[in-house]
Design brief:
Layout: H1 2-26, E1 29-31, H2 37-55, H3 79-153, E2 156-158
Antiparallel strand pairs: 1-2
Helix pairs in contact: 1-3, 2-3
Length: about 160
């Protein structure tokens, strides 16, 4: 289970990291006051530091999860377990014929129960991933606003 959680976090972080790269590559900076390349590099570095300090977000750092992923519960139900329980109850109530009927009914109920548990776990995982992506994007947007304000104040057009 620990390995699955680690791979899930890694997958989500890679997804977020890809988003960060896309957002950064979309930013275009144009010097409006004939700044030199050296001056633009200096301003870029200083604005990066200022925006990072203002927003609390570092676009160069690898993304991290702000909360652990939902815990995976131990399997509940299942065809085999349901069949055994159904056979036991059916055998007590109606002998061997009841055991067969109970096993079939128990298998169906156990399978449905397990499928419902898996579906619920998938929904919880998707909600966690969406929450992490939204939080990352919000932090990234805050950084971009601060960086743009700094570069704008130094005479650059940022789009």
């Amino acid at each position: 289970m620990m390995l699955k959680c680690a791979s899930t976090i890694t997958g989500v972080m890679l997804m977020l990291f890809g988003t960060a790269g896309w957002a950064q590559s979309e930013m275009v900076i144009y010097p409006t006051k004939n700044q030199t390349k050296e001056q633009q590099d200096k301003d870029n570095f200083e604005c990066y530091g200022w925006a990072k300090q203002q927003s609390g977000f570092d676009p160069m750092a690898p993304p991290t999860a702000s909360a652990p992923p939902p815990q995976q519960q131990a399997p509940k139900g299942g065809v085999g377990r349901g069949a055994l329980r159904g056979a036991a109850v059916g055998g007590i109530v109606d002998g061997s014929d009841g055991a067969k009927t109970g096993a079939a009914a128990g298998a169906v109920v156990g399978g449905v129960r397990r499928r419902d548990q898996r579906r619920q776990q998938q929904v919880e995982q998707q909600q966690w991933e969406q929450q992490q992506a939204a939080q990352y994007q919000g932090n990234r947007d805050s950084y971009n606003r601060a960086y743009t304000a700094c570069m704008d104040g130094r005479g650059y057009s940022v789009r």
